[in-house]
Amino acid sequence: MDYTSFEPLLIKYSFGMLLLGMIFYWIKASLFSIQKFNYLGSIFILISNFCLTFLLIFRWISSNHFPLSNLYESLIFLSWSLTFCQLFFENKTKNFYIGIIMTPISLFVLAFATFSLPEEMQKSSSLVPALQSNWLMMHVTVMILSYAALIFGSLLSLAYLVLVYSKINIFKGYSSFLNQKIKEKLFTKNNLDKSLTQPNEILQANTGILFNQPEIDENFDEINLIIKNLDNLSYRILGIGFPLLTIGILSGAVWANETWGSYWNWDPKETWALITWFIFAIYLHTRITKGWKGEKSAIIASIGFFVVWICFLGVNLFAKGLHSYGWIVSN
Question: Long-range contacts for 257-266 (Cβ within 8 Å, ≥24 apart)?
Fold first, then answer.
């Protein structure tokens, strides 16, 4: 049976479910918050994850090796890992904003693999001699799982920074608006009504705007809670990704010694993997020993977000080294 004939259909279903999931999360965040629709986004992501699972299994059966032999398969596995992480943590935390943040990146990875890579790179191929090892599944799967966790946690840190600075700008903008109205309207002797003693009453009487302090405070409290949850969740996920990255690098060193007779060759991929490791080691060290939280640690994690993408994708597209085979075939 030719399982590869199912691949285009599975890709379309997976892409469509991710797209519907992203639209649902954004509409839910903007327009409504009916509780019975909370699981609809997760259902879309679950269907997409199932489609990717069967796609990987079918390629495994047809090629007789774990489907991580080229960039296309690695991107598919990364998209699967991202959707799996999203489902797991969204179910654990019951926070739907995880879907708002994570679904677009999973969609982007799948879209890049499907629409940007040429067809010859999407075809399953036999393994080159260096990849014909039991270390393939151990090393590459752990590395991609670590990338997924690090991308996940770093993206939450980026969202944290966006919310923090957005909140500050909103507060400054509102304060500036209120102060301007007070200066222009409220303290003009001709317009000031001495019988009005409360700021809310004065503002409503002179500008037609009612300043509802409890409602404003409640909105800021909700934003503050989301910000705090993003910081804590990012730390937890990065705390998972870093050990996986460490195991992946160590297993890769052992595999390299078996294949090339050296544990470390300063290949571009190895170098950027080491840079990635140092970035997140600094993040965890400063967080644990220095007590850094909030903006400082989020900035380090945000830098790590871009470094991970350079390590995973940039090196394979633009650098040439021992890891170039199986990703891009040079003419």
Answer: 258/133, 258/135, 259/130, 259/133, 260/130, 260/322, 265/322
3-state secondary structure of 33: coil
Q: Cα 214 from chain centroid?
A: 34
Q: Mean pLDDT over all residues of the chain?
A: 79
Q: Which residues contact 180 (CB under 8 A, 6 or more apart)?
A: none
pLDDT at 206 over 60: no
Q: Are 234 and 153 in contact (CB under 8 A)?
A: yes
3-state SS class at 128: coil
Residue 268, pLDDT score: 84
Other C-beta atoms lying within 10 Å of the C-beta of residue 17 = 23
Tell me the chain's radius of gyration from C-alpha atoms. 25
More confident residue, 280 or 215: 280
Sequence-ordered alpha helix ranges (H) in 182-294: 199-207, 213-260, 268-288
- Residues 290/262, Cβ–Cβ less than 8 Å: no
Stated length of the chain:
331
DSSP code at position 66: -
Longest C-alpha distance within the chain, in Å? 89
What type of residue sits at position 275? Answer: I
The H or E element that residue 309 is part of is helix 295-309
pLDDT tens column, 30-74: 776 656 666 888 899 999 999 999 999 988 888 787 888 788 888
What are 151-192's pLDDT values in tens digits? Answer: 999 999 999 998 888 765 555 554 555 555 555 554 554 454
State which amino acid sits at residue 209: I
Question: What are the extents of the domains in the chain?
Answer: 3-119+131-161+218-318
